[in-house]
Amino acid sequence: MASVHILGSDHDISEPKRRIYVVEVGADGLSVDPLTHLRFTNNGLADVVADLLPLAPKVFITGGGGYDLKATTKAWTL
Predict the structure, then answer these.
(1) CA dihedral 72, 62, 29, 53 (to 10 degrees)
(2) CA angle, corner 38, sides to 73 and 30, nearest 5?
(3) Span 8-56, pLDDT tens digits
(4) 3, 18, 36 from 22: Cα distances, Å
(5) CB of 1 within 8 A of CB of 51?
């Protein structure tokens, strides 16, 4: 399972099973983003989302952040 940190939460996301997760997939952490020095990849973001899907019957995913238009558009359409 990918490493996942939920801001403002001290819950173990593997137990108990949640009814819904709301996840913002911020594209500003991608390696090509001009304002950050993070090195996320689209595949890494997709892996984290895939790891969350079995943990709740419903997952609501939104796009967020991103200052490189091409990379942000690609990330949000995964």
Answers:
(1) -120
(2) 10
(3) 555 565 656 667 888 888 888 899 988 888 888 989 888 888 888 887 7
(4) 17, 11, 24
(5) yes
Residues 62 and 17: their CA atoms lie apart, in Å, by 21
User: If DSSP codes are grouped into helix, strand and coil, which group holds residue 25?
Assistant: strand
- Cα dihedral 54, 59, 62, 65, rounded to 10, equals -40
Contact between 41 and 29 (Cβ < 8 Å):
no
Q: How many other C-beta atoms lie within 10 A of the C-beta of residue 2? A: 12
Q: Is the pTM of this model over 0.85?
A: no
